[in-house]
Write a structure and sequence with these properties.
Radius of gyration: 31 Å
Distance between the termini: 83 Å
Largest sheet: none
Structural class: mainly alpha
Helix content: 55-70%
Shape: globular
Length: 234
């Protein structure tokens, strides 16, 4: 009986070659996984196959994007957004409160976002000019929008750009939390020293990437032409 069982098992193995193929595939996958794990341990790679930077566990999976226009590119670029860039330049020079409210409205798109930010900015603007002779209070309120835009679109901050150009600031940063604190501080300094230019740069960036909430709220009606009708003869 034992001999007959062994013969039947051999016949089943010979008659089903798919089993052998599946086993070979499973073994090859296991070998590939072990090789990948060893390479990750040796070279310090993350689970996504990206090298770990600065000894971090998470690493730097995505590089920072560049701003669509420079800080001092007041007139923007000669492209399809040229008219919008001119509008941003005029608003930043004549009515910065309107520009800041419009930027906040595109970011938040909540009811009352424009009026809340615009009126608050306008009050700080008048208080700063009345007491100190220049717009020194509004940047304390508006610099957070620059940080929000930078985080939302994964843009390169001033601190990272300075570190990339000279390479003298990266040694004092230990983790991403400290880097973010430094970037927020640079956003505040940018708004204090170059407030109008910072607002205009943010306005150009938002208008290139975010539609106005009013366009999303408009309902579109699609009218289809009637299909061809044929007259049947009786």
């Amino acid at each position: 009986m034992a001999g007959e069982d062994s013969r039947e098992a051999q016949r089943c193995e010979e008659s089903s070659p798919l089993l052998q193929v599946n086993e070979s595939k499973i073994c090859s996958k296991g070998d590939d996984n072990t090789k990948t794990t060893k390479a990750a341990e040796e070279h310090g790679w993350t689970a996504d196959g990206l090298p770990v930077s600065h000894g971090s566990v998470i690493g730097e999976p995505i590089g920072r994007n560049q701003w669509s226009s420079g800080l001092f590119s007041c007139l923007g670029r000669n492209d399809e957004f040229c008219s919008s860039d001119l509008e941003v330049c005029l608003l930043g020079s004549v009515a910065p409160c309107v520009l800041y409210g419009s930027n906040a409205e595109r970011l938040g798109s909540a009811p009352g976002t424009f009026s809340n930010h615009c009126l608050t900015y306008l009050g700080l603007y008048f208080v700063g000019n009345s007491l100190f002779g220049w717009n020194c209070l509004a940047p304390w309120f508006s610099y957070s929008s620059r940080s929000a835009i930078r985080r939302r679109f994964n843009l390169e901050g001033s601190f990272e750009a300075m570190n990339r150009s000279c390479g003298c600031c990266g040694s004092c940063i230990e983790d991403e939390m400290q880097r973010e604190h430094m970037e927020t501080t640079c956003d505040f300094v940018t708004h204090v020293l170059c407030h109008t230019c910072a607002l205009c740069q943010e306005g150009r960036e938002i208008r290139r990437k975010v539609l106005h909430p009013g366009f999303n709220a408009q309902s579109t009606v699609v009218v289809l032409p009637p299909s061809e009708q044929t007259m049947g003869r009786k």
